[in-house]
Amino acid sequence: MVFATDRGSSKSALCTLDTATGAVRHSTCRTQAARIRTLLQRPRPALVVIEISPLAALVHDVAVSLGIAIQVADATQDAWRWRNVKRQTDRDYARKLARLAALGQLNPVHLPEPQMRPWRALVEYRQTPVAERTRVKNRIRQVVLVHAGHRPRADQSGWSPTARAGVEPETKNPSPSLS
């Protein structure tokens, strides 16, 4: 039996696929660890499948604590492509996830251990302000090039107090040229 879920922040679509008979059963539940634990204890599936998402860790940790095999799937592969499908509901998504798992057509991805997740989230978050700082510096370089007529240094020393002081007079009182 394969248990697949398409998780939402408040409600999750569930699909239980009996691999012997092909019977499919659908349900929904609130997205809470206690509720997921209750659902997994009753039929005791051989495999739990979920796509990678911020909420995947919740289901992963519950399944592991119950000793149930879990597969975290990468939803960017070709098997996930929806072609000529007008309706794409959470229920359809959970059923497709269960069927692909039963056929062995999912590409599993690694989910970090619980103690590593906060550290990885912090490293990932840090990338956003670092990238923004780089974009701002590049915009400033472009403004100086256009208005002051020279390109500031692109290395770290281009942002030293001495380097900034050399550009400051040219950017504070720009002389408009009307040609």
Overview of the structural elements:
- It is a single chain.
- The chain is α/β, with parallel strands linked by helices and 179 residues long.
- The protein folds into two domains: 2-102, Nucleotidyltransferase, domain 5 (2-Layer Sandwich); 117-172, no CATH class.
- The protein has five helices and five strands; from the N terminus they run βββαβαβααα.
- A hairpin with a 4-residue loop joins strand 1 (2-6) and strand 2 (11-17).
- The longest helix is centred in the C-terminal third of the chain and has 32 residues, at 117-148.
- The radius of gyration is 26 Å and the shape is elongated.
- 18% of the residues are buried.
Straight-line N-to-C gap = 78 Å
CATH architecture of the largest domain: 2-Layer Sandwich
What count of domains describes the coordinates? 2
Task: Provide the residue-averaged pLDDT.
Answer: 78
Key traits:
179 residues; alpha/beta; Nucleotidyltransferase, domain 5; 2 domains; elongated
Write a concise synopsis of the structure shown.
The chain is an alpha/beta fold and 179 residues long.
Blueprint (SSEs and pairs):
Layout: E1 2-6, E2 11-17, E3 24-30, H1 33-41, E4 47-51, H2 56-66, E5 69-73, H3 90-102, H4 117-148, H5 161-172
Parallel strand pairs: 1-4, 4-5
Antiparallel strand pairs: 1-2, 2-3
Helix pairs in contact: 1-2
